[in-house]
Amino acid sequence: MKTGNPLNFPSDPKWYADPEAHLFHHTGANKTQNYWIYPTYSAAYESQTFFDAFSSPDLVTWTKYPRILDITRIPWSTNRAAWAPSVARRRVQPLASQSPAARANSAKPNPNSQTEEEERGEEWKYYMYFSTGDGTGIGVAQSSTNTPSGPFEDALGEPLVNGTVLGAEAIDAQIFVDKDSDTGEETGRVWLYFGGWGHAVVVEVDADSMVALKGEFVEITPPDYVEGPWVFRRGEVYYFMYSVGGWGDNSYGVSYVTGSSPTGPFTSTPTKILQGDDRVGTSTGHNSVLTVGDEYYIVYHRRYLNDTERDHRVVCIDRMEFDALGNILPVKITVEGVDARPL
């Protein structure tokens, strides 16, 4: 069975964009492992006042969790333009505060193993980073149920990032929890990437609280950068993916550069790996990467052929592969999607 593209979200309409994909399990009484996608509701800015989430046990059948964060309940929000949520989980006792012996005992070879997590009795807190008000700021919210389904509530009463920084509009947050390339265990360092208006910025996040910044903002803008940063680690290489072109037309796509640390320096020559296909779909961009074992999937939004409505964007998934040198190969976008992947 194939997933199909776009993904079959149980929602009417199905207009969503900027999807972030994860493999999470519920904490508390329900420890069912699921794929999760956190998108932007693609509509007029005035209607973008909330975030929905979707979960699936196999990438085919999806459950909707409506309004997991309502920005109209956040005093500092302008009650419009809720964009690009990013979700991370942290142990109830953060790794950075554990003793060296405890950290060594918690190391595991497979970070996606639900069984090993349950055997260690781990509980997690979930945090969402989001932009609102077309650049007003980036906020952070915490799940009140310690589950990835929320609901999430504003954690600070003010933005975590307040307005433009180093030329970067405060939109399109990605929270990146660094992990050891051998064990898959968290390194104790967390980074926040964001930026519109052609500038990309990174800043370290306090790994214990997850609601405070540490260190300085660093501009890391690569060539042709527009928006939508996404960083992931494969071995000792950090891949910095980002959207290029115009989000409303078929110039929209995804390029990447690489570096040896979360803050670079990154290579100066980008490679474009995602773009529209006049036989399949157009305006492909604002991606995330889902890693399942040794397999990689790119999750992104695109438009139907010949559909010119500004907000008619849908979420899709396709395989992402590498050559022997670690270069990402050009992605073939499909109508079929990928094979079902039951957990």
Automatic annotation (TrEMBL):
Pfam families: Glyco_hydro_43. One of its GO terms (biological process) is carbohydrate metabolic process. Coiled coil: none annotated. The record marks D172 as: Important for catalytic activity, responsible for pKa modulation of the active site Glu and correct orientation of both the proton donor and substrate. Residues 94-120 are annotated as: Disordered. It comes from the Eukaryota. The keyword Signal applies. GO terms for molecular function: hydrolase activity, hydrolyzing O-glycosyl compounds. Keywords: Carbohydrate metabolism, Glycosidase, Hydrolase, Signal. Belongs to the glycosyl hydrolase 43 family. This is Arabinanase/levansucrase/invertase. It comes from Aspergillus homomorphus (strain CBS 101889). The lineage of its organism: Eukaryota, Fungi, Dikarya, Ascomycota, Pezizomycotina.
